[in-house]
Amino acid sequence: MTPHFPIAILLGMFERIRNASSILFITFALAGCGNALPTTAPVAVTLPGSTALPTAGSTHFSGPYFGQTPPGSSPVRFASALLRGDLHTPPTFMPDGSQVYWALQGAKILTMALKDGYWTLPESIAFSTSMTDYRDPFISPSGDRLFFLSKGRLPNSQLPEKENVWFVERAGTGWGEPQPLSEVVNSFALHWQVSVNDDGDIYFSARDTGCEDIYSSRYVSGRHIKPERLGDSVNTADLCETTPYIAPDGSYLIFARWDMNNGDSPTRLYISYADDDGGWTMAVLVEQVGYGLCPRVSPDGKYLFFLSSPQSVSWMSTEFIQELKPR
C-alpha cells in the first residue's frame, strides 16, 4: 500500500533538497579558489544568499593579492598555483592593486586585472607593434610609469644591441609607446631588475667587469643623470650585488647578494638604510630568507615579495624593515 504524505511535508522535503543542492553546487564551484585555475571557463551564476561566481575569462582568484592568506614574519609561498613555471621576477602591483605584472624567462611579461572582484586570466602584454622583447616590469610608486628591460634597438643610437631600460607612461587604462631612458643609463651592461623611488631616481645592477654592483641615477630636470656606484657598505669587492629595490621615500634599499666564485653559496637578501650623510648603512642580512632574488615591497608597504626559486614566489611581512634598522 502506497503511503500518502501531507502536501506541507512534501514541500518541506523539496525545499531542503533544493537548499542542499545549492550549497553543494557552490561548494564544488569554489573548492579550488586558492589552489588552482579552473579547467573550464566558469559561468556567472547567482543564487539566493550567494555572490556571483567569476564570469568567463576570469580565474577563481578574488580580492587583494589573489585572496591569499597574509603571511607573518617567515616567508611562505605566494599563489603557487598561479605564479609558476620559469619565472624571472615576482609580481609588481599597481598602487590601487587593480593590475599586476610579472616576467617569465624568455622575454615575456604577463598581466592580470581585478574586475568585478575576480582576477582575469593571465595574458602576455606588448607595448608596441615594433617590439617583441619585454623583460622584468616595475611599476613606479605613483603608478604613472612602468619600467622594463628590452633588447630592442634604441632609436637614433650608436650603442650596440643589448639589454636596455625602457618605460611606458600611463594613458587612460593602458600604456603609451615605449621610450628608452637616457644613454648615460643605457650605456651600462644592465642586468635584471630596476627600481624607482618617488623622486624618479632609478636603481639598477650593472657590471663593467666580473660581477654586478648596484648603481643609482638621479632624476634631474626630466632626465636621469650619470649613474653612480653605491658605496662599500652596499657593494663588495668579492661578491655580487644585484636586483635592488628602493623604498618609495628612499629610506631603505633591499637587494640580493651572492658569491660568483662559490657555486654552493645561496643568493641571500640584504637591507641597507639611507644615512644622514647621503650614504648607506652597512648592509644587514635578512636572515628569514634562505634564498631570495628580486625583492619588491607591495604598494601598501605591508609585504615583501621575492623569487624563492626559479619557479616560485614567496612573501612575508615587512616588519623586519623596522626591526633591522640601526638605532
Summarize the structure.
The protein is mainly beta and 327 residues long. Helices cover 10% and strands 35% of the residues.
Account of the protein in words:
This protein has 2 domains: 1-62, no CATH class; 63-323, Neuraminidase (6 Propeller). Helices cover 10% and strands 35% of the residues. It contains 3 helices and 25 strands. It has 327 residues and is mainly beta. It is globular and about 55 Å long. A hairpin with a 5-residue loop joins β19 (240-246) and β20 (252-258). The termini are far apart. The strands form 6 sheets. Strands 1, 3, 4, 5, 6 and 7 form a 6-stranded antiparallel sheet that branches. Strands 8, 9, 10, 11 and 12 form a 5-stranded antiparallel sheet that branches.
Which tags fit this structure?
disordered N terminus; 327 residues; 5-stranded antiparallel β-sheet; 3 helices; 2 domains; mainly beta
What layout of secondary structure does this protein have?
Blueprint: H1 7-30, E1 58-62, E2 76-77, E3 92-93, E4 99-104, E5 108-115, E6 118-120, E7 123-124, E8 135-139, E9 145-150, E10 164-171, E11 174-175, E12 179-180, H2 183-186, E13 190-196, E14 202-206, E15 213-217, E16 219-220, E17 223-224, E18 228-229, E19 240-246, E20 252-258, E21 268-273, E22 284-285, E23 293-297, E24 303-309, E25 312-317, H3 319-323
Antiparallel strand pairs: 1-6, 2-25, 3-4, 4-5, 5-6, 5-7, 8-9, 9-10, 10-11, 10-12, 13-14, 14-15, 15-18, 16-17, 19-20, 20-21, 21-22, 23-24, 24-25
